[in-house]
Amino acid sequence: MATRPRSSFRQTNCQRWLAIACLCAVCVWPSSRAWVSPWRSGTRSPRVMCLAVQPLVNEMSEVFQRCVEEYSNENSEEFQEGPPATGFRNLTECIRPYHPNPEWQLFPGEVGSFERDQKICSMYTLATGLFRDINKCIRDDNEDGLRRLAPMVWEIREVLRFETAKICKPDGRKCKPFMGKCLRGLEVPEDEVEEWASLYKEGTEFTWPAFTSCQLEDGGLWPFDGNLNFEIECNIDPSKLSVPEVFAPVSIKRFIGGSNEVLFPPQTKFRVKEDAKDVQRVTENDETRDVHTRVLEVVELPVPQDVQRAAVSPTDRVQRKGGKRRAPSRKKR
Predict the structure, then answer these.
(1) Among residues 37, 78, 147, 174, which is most buried (max CB within 10 A)?
(2) In terms of domains, do 146 and 208 share one?
(3) 67 domain-assigned
């Protein structure tokens, strides 16, 4: 019987050990987004998973203040991993884990231009996990994650930022704030949905800390419906507000034709207008469950904090800063 030479056995064994080593390396290699806690999987779209639901709040967190409100796209320190993390990633480093193709890292136009807004909207709406991670970090007060994602958070907020005196004017932006009714569906564990729904009592005011993605009323929520649904009425006309600038909801259809999405800025304040709608027993995809509905109205849109600081009188600002006069920083539009 013919036998293989010893060198052949050595080669075969080497190949086996090499394959095992490669497999082990793949298993232990750290994730590029290890700073984001695992996302619970489910049978429905992750864009409407129950993780969007948190106890109702009315105040901005300190982490949001440090990593979002105080972030500057011009004078930020270089990001350093922690703990605690310091500084911020730049825009290219921020999006590379989600959009590694260099073409996605080219940004046309100036901030606030239609071309740039369209690029930002096309990026965050793709199913890369970018938008999901941004919202999760905001809701979880994940400072390490927000310092990595701050440039993209800033860019998306700029899409929603308006100078009130220039809305629908020739020298204003080529889009206008959304006004009307839209829908929001959240997926909540069946044994918790009643508890969460009870938080939204008539007259309760609260803010959703992260970006809120909704759908236009036409066509309903499907396939983004959940078992805790919201009908949201936005009747605030930002052009009539007394503040010079404001963050306001925008219909993404303006930038992406055919889109049914309306995006609300973080820290938008809502009031529960109606909580007495009957619970519906709905069967979908061979699954029967209770669906709760609440009617909300927008009562306050967030104002950029640099604008708020600029509105404070110099004397008052000196008192607040302990006698040190500090001019408000304004971002270029």
Answers:
(1) 147
(2) no
(3) yes
- State how far the Cα of 57 lies from the Cα of 88, in Å rounded to an integer: 26
The structural domain count of the chain equals 2
Instruction: Output the DSSP codes for 177-241.
Output: ---EEEEEEE---TTTHHHHHHHS-TT-EEEE-S-EEEEESTT-STTS--SEEEEEEE---GGGS
Token pair of 184 as six digits: 């929001």
- 171 & 298 share domain: yes
* Confidence (pTM): 0.76
Instruction: Give residue-wise pLDDT tens across range 267-290.
Output: 999 999 987 777 888 777 677 778
* Residue finishing a domain among 125, 142, 159: 159
Are 104 and 178 within one domain? Answer: no
Please give the residue range of the domain that contains residue 70.
59-159
Same domain, 189 and 77: no
Secondary structure (DSSP) of 20-64: HHHHHHHHHSPPTTTTSPPPPP-SS-GGG-GGG----B-S--HHH
Give the C-alpha distances (Å, rounded to integers) separating 308 from 168, 259, 282, 295, 312.
23, 33, 46, 30, 7
